[in-house]
Specification:
single chain; alpha+beta; Rossmann fold; five-stranded mixed β-sheet
């Protein structure tokens, strides 16, 4: 990709305050993502993902999709525009305060879905007839809408966002319990691959009206809205909402906890029959008797996860993208305009085919400006081509976030960047 053609502009300061008011501090992720040209704020809680940001979002999506397929998930796409009647059946038309409600032609009323239990349950009823149809698992990745009273912290809390929902359907509570454990395992892998493994804790939380407990995946960051308590001995984590610090850790038995601010990047719930009963979702067992279907739901906010990654991975100069989610792998920067430097840079681009390269071909920027912008954007490797390096048959390679510069033979570049 030629940087001169990339649809973006960097800024010295972010144009929007992302809802930081009343003494709140602007989220670092908002500041950096706006300044580096990854997102643009249309209005409070609503963002455009520019090409750089969309590339990151798709990388995150692919990581999640791979793991959902590994636990048997089948991908589909459900509509965001929902009929009022479905939400009335579950009672959430009246009780869910963040539900966007619309009035269409003929005075018909609709909801913009913040979640999809009201769609997937009646859909499953059309498919599930007998015990032979269970279990099955379906997921989708789609825009969601929540009428938040106050959107804030950039893409960490928005009114429109991208989310993955996995829904599972089971004949028994035991089967739901077993699958729940499988999904919990792949969730840990998702956050590990996305670069948040060490900072993200599987956290015991309230199950709400569904079950006694659920699990949240909380990433430690000062920008978080939640407070969690982490056992100092075994790392067991529990949400403040249900924590009693006087009690012993249910995992290891000690009573020493560390209090941390965190942001929820995913959650898993055992829904039980909460949403199958309102829609008459049942199946016939081997004897022909009608039985209730048990459900589970498993969510990850992709855009929120992207913000959390930046909150954890940055320095004073800009973003430091983990390799697996970076928009490009290599930032190629020629620092002189000689024919030799230009031709070498173009040849490197060809030699690195199959590796994602952002080639800074701009002629109106100084070397210092190019380097500063490269740090802000945060691509994992910077490769500098100059007359000085070419005199040694080398280029200069620097890993983002590290100070060390390495002289690397040009023919070795495809080998060292083949990390994907």
């Amino acid at each position: 990709m030629l940087q001169s053609k990339l649809f973006y502009k960097t800024q010295k300061t972010a144009r929007h305050d992302a809802g930081a008011s009343g003494g709140e501090k602007t989220a670092v992720s908002h500041e950096l993502l706006v300044r580096a040209g990854f997102v643009d704020q249309l209005m409070a809680g609503v963002y455009t993902f520019l090409p750089l940001g969309f590339m990151v979002l798709k990388k995150i999506e692919n990581i999640i999709r791979k793991n959902m397929l590994e636990v048997g998930g089948q991908e589909m796409l459900m509509p965001a525009l929902n009929p009022k009647e479905n939400w009335q059946k579950t009672g959430r038309w009246e009780t869910l305060d963040i539900l966007f409600k619309l009035r269409g032609a003929g005075d018909r009323e609709y909801a913009l879905a913040p979640t999809h239990e009201e769609v997937v349950s009646p859909l499953a009823k059309k498919i599930i007839l007998s015990y032979k149809d269970l279990p099955f698992y379906i997921f989708h990745i789609q825009d969601k809408f929540r009428n938040e009273l106050r959107a804030k912290s950039g893409i960490l809390r928005t009114r429109e966002f991208v989310m993955k929902d996995l829904y599972s359907f089971h004949a028994t509570q035991e089967d739901l319990d077993n699958y729940y454990v499988k999904v919990a395992k792949v969730y840990k892998n998702i956050f590990k691959v996305a670069g948040l493994g060490k900072q993200t804790f599987e956290t015991l939380a309230s199950g709400g009206t569904f079950s006694k407990y659920s699990h949240e995946y909380q990433t430690i960051t000062d920008a978080g809205e939640d407070t969690i308590f982490i056992c100092k001995k075994c790392g067991f984590s529990i949400n403040e909402e249900i924590a009693d610090k006087k009690n012993k850790c249910p995992n290891c038995g000690i009573t020493e906890y560390e209090q941390k601010k965190a942001i929820e990047v995913g959650n898993i719930f055992k829904l039980g029959t909460k949403y199958s009963l309102p829609f008459g979702l049942k199946y016939k067992d081997k004897s022909g008797k009608e039985m209730d279907v048990y459900m589970g739901c498993y969510g990850i906010g992709l855009s929120r996860l992207m913000g959390a990654i930046v909150e954890i991975n940055h320095d004073d100069n800009g973003i430091i993208w983990p390799k697996e989610v970076a928009p490009f792998s290599v930032h190629l920067i020629p620092v002189e305009e000689s024919v030799k430097v230009k031709r070498t840079a173009e040849k490197i681009c060809k030699d690195l085919s199959g590796i994602e390269v952002l080639y800074d071909d701009r002629k109106d920027k100084t070397t210092g400006e190019k380097f500063a912008e490269a740090d802000l954007i945060g691509i994992p490797y910077r490769v500098v081509v100059s007359e000085k390096t070419l005199a040694r048959g080398c280029v200069e390679v620097k890993e983002r976030g590290k100070k060390q510069l390495k002289a690397v033979k040009i023919k070795q570049l495809p080998k060292i960047f083949n990390f994907q």
